[in-house]
Structures are given as structure tokens and as C-alpha cells.
Design brief:
- With 272 residues, the chain is an all-alpha fold.
- It is 70% helix and 0% strand.
- It has 14 helices and no strands.
- The longest helix is centred in the middle third of the chain and has 29 residues, at 153-181.
- The radius of gyration is 20 Å and the shape is globular.
- The model has no long low-confidence stretch (mean pLDDT 86).
């Protein structure tokens, strides 16, 4: 009688998008699970989605806009800052969850088979709820300052949010896979995201960067993302070069991260 031996594939394993589609119900289940866990047994519930960026914007407005006199391109500083904090908060929360997702779901990985890419991808769902709530709060802040977003904002914002999701997922694939083997990643991510925030034009305008350094600064993919949100919400001229750079870097990171993740995933159940 012939013996069938099943071995994990070696080398660079191609992506199987058809298989991912077959497991779409698991993706939905994991996303809904995280939403329920997020708001279960909390006193303020979904209000945390408003409190966090609102308090952060208030503190930044007092110290950077008020005491530090940082310019905001003629826009009320709270609106200027909140427009930057909105995509950044979604991105950083998604990255934090995605980079720890494989280790956090080790019990699931070791029991059943499914495309492991679904785990970090599902981590992008729950922060979307917070993002939507925070976006409503931003509209209220803009109305307080007698500002309204242009109608085109409701076309561009979903596209820019998709870009933020893709960027967070791309980096999460790299860090999530490495975190299985090197648990230092879990300690490095919060520190790096904090440095990343203050090195990005969130509390200060992109125009504050000297012109000779702006092309170098645009290599930071958050620059095009944040400036894109401000252009969409405030009706400012679009900064095409930083936005295209952000899209290009995101696509490269996403493609390479997916193949890197697939290369290592066969050992996740044994190591995680």
C-alpha cells in the first residue's frame, strides 16, 4: 500500500487568493469577535473611540499650537491636528494589533488549518469602527469652527482609508511574522510608532519642512497619507508627489510582506 507523506512547502510560496476567498467567513468571524471583545464590559464603550483622539488633539493644541506656536497653514490648530490624528490613530492601532496577531492567536493556529494571512488582515476591521466614530467627531469639531468638508471628501476618504489599511497590513505582515521568532518586536513596535508619529507632519505642517528636505521626508509613507486626508477634508490643493510615493511604498511593502509572511507561516504552529 502506498504511503502519502505531506510536507510543508519550501522556498517562496505563491499567494493563493482563491483560497483566501473560500475562508472569507472566518475573516468576518474574527473581525466581529474583535469588535465584541473591544467593547465588552466597558463603561464608556464606543466613546473611547472619541475620547482618545479628542484628548490627544486637545493636549497637542495647548502645548504645540498654543505654547509652541506651531503654524497650521491658516487652519484652526485643533482641526488641523485632528485631521492628522484621525488617519494616524487608525494606522497605529491597526499596526499594533496586526503585528501581535499571530502570537495572540497561536492557540487557533495550532488547532486547524486556514490561510494564516486572514489573521493579520482581520485585525484591520475593529479599528475601522473606531475610525468611523472618530470621523463623526471630527465633523462636529469642524462645524464648531464653522468649517465643512467638501462633498468630494466622502469619495476620497474611503480610498485614503483603504491606503491606510493596506500600509498597516503590509508592515504587520513583516512584523507579525518576525514577532513569532523574536518577541522583542512586541516591545519595539510601541516605541517605533511613537517616534514615527512625531517625525511625521501630524502636529506640524509639511510646509514647515525646508524645501530641500521635503523629497526625503516624502519617503515616509505617512506623509502622503496624512496630507491626503487634510486635502480631502479641508479642500486644500493635493500634494501629488508625497501621495504617489506613499502608494508606491505601500504596494512594495504589501507584496513583499505577503510573500515573506507565506515563506515563514509553515512554522508558526510549532514556534508560536
Amino acid at each position: 500500500m502506498a504511503t502519502l507523506v505531506i510536507k510543508p512547502a519550501k522556498g517562496w510560496i505563491p499567494l493563493n487568493l482563491r483560497e483566501m476567498w473560500r475562508y472569507r467567513e472566518l475573516f468576518v468571524f474574527l473581525g466581529l469577535r474583535d469588535i465584541k471583545v473591544r467593547y465588552k464590559q466597558t463603561v464608556l464603550g464606543a466613546s473611547w473611540a472619541i475620547i482618545q483622539p479628542l484628548l490627544t488633539t486637545t493636549v497637542f493644541s495647548v502645548f504645540f499650537g498654543g505654547l509652541g506656536k506651531i503654524p497650521s497653514d491658516g487652519i484652526p490648530y485643533p482641526v488641523f491636528c485632528y485631521c492628522g490624528m484621525l488617519p494616524w490613530t487608525y494606522f497605529s492601532n491597526s499596526l499594533s494589533r496586526g503585528s501581535a496577531s499571530i502570537v495572540g492567536n497561536a492557540h487557533l493556529i495550532s488547532k486547524i488549518y486556514f490561510p494564516r494571512l486572514i489573521i493579520p488582515a482581520s485585525m484591520m476591521v475593529q479599528p475601522l469602527i473606531d475610525f468611523a466614530i472618530s470621523f463623526g467627531a471630527l465633523i462636529c469639531v469642524m462645524l464648531y469652527f464653522h468649517m465643512t468638508p467638501p462633498a468630494t471628501a466622502f469619495v476620497y476618504i474611503p480610498l485614503l482609508t483603504l491606503l491606510a489599511s493596506a500600509l498597516a497590513l503590509a508592515i504587520s505582515l513583516w512584523l507579525g511574522a518576525l514577532n513569532v521568532y523574536y518577541r522583542d518586536i512586541a516591545h519595539i513596535v510601541p516605541f517605533l510608532t511613537q517616534l514615527w508619529m512625531f517625525s511625521s507632519p501630524i502636529v506640524f505642517p509639511y510646509s514647515l519642512i525646508p524645501a530641500k528636505y521635503q523629497q526625503i521626508a516624502a519617503l515616509n509613507p505617512i506623509v502622503g497619507l496624512v496630507e491626503g486626508f487634510r486635502s480631502a477634508l479641508l479642500g486644500r490643493p493635493w500634494m501629488v508627489e508625497p501621495l504617489l510615493t506613499s502608494v508606491g511604498i505601500t504596494l512594495v511593502l504589501l507584496a513583499s510582506g505577503a510573500f515573506f509572511f507565506r515563506r515563514l507561516e509553515s512554522d508558526f504552529a510549532d514556534v508560536a
